Amino acid sequence: MKLIAILGLLLSFQLIAQEQHVRLLKGQKNYRLVSKNEQSDLKYKLFNQFGSVKIYSGGKIEKAFQPKKGKFTVYVFVAEYQGDSFDGTRKTFHDKLILKVNPETSEVLDGFQYTMEWAEPPAAYDLYRVTEDGVVLTHHMDLDELQMRVDDKFQGEYMDLEDHGIVWLE
Fold this sequence. Notes:
The chain is 19% helix and 38% strand. The chain is α+β, with helices and mostly antiparallel strands. Strands 1, 2, 3, 4, 5, 6, 7 and 10 form an eight-stranded mixed β-sheet that branches. The chain is globular. Residues 7-13 and 15-26 have low confidence and may be disordered.
């Protein structure tokens, strides 16, 4: 009986691994851990500037993805991929993901994702925010669990992040 249970468990792990491999082949992004910062928080003041041209000065976009001191754990990830630029050329893009996490439960409390090479102002058009509550950050977590969306204040609607990805904690 134990052998059957073990074989069933191994088969389940194999099926999950195959599903993730297929998703990667279909263009899914890999969000690799850049830094884990304890006693940190997000720089909300900078994220609030993404709707203004002020965010483009002084490297503020990059600085927004650098945590400040606080009482949470902040993880920073980057997904690097090839894509078509606005000018029709093929180039490397970098999607940054920053997640504020409860250090005791690993629950994701807030977070943002942005393509660093985004060229069209305002920057807020590509700033996606976590909308799902109660998601626990885990290794190989599916980015879709966070239900990220951008709040388009200009058109009065929400746009869901259509990209798919896996978050790697190692």
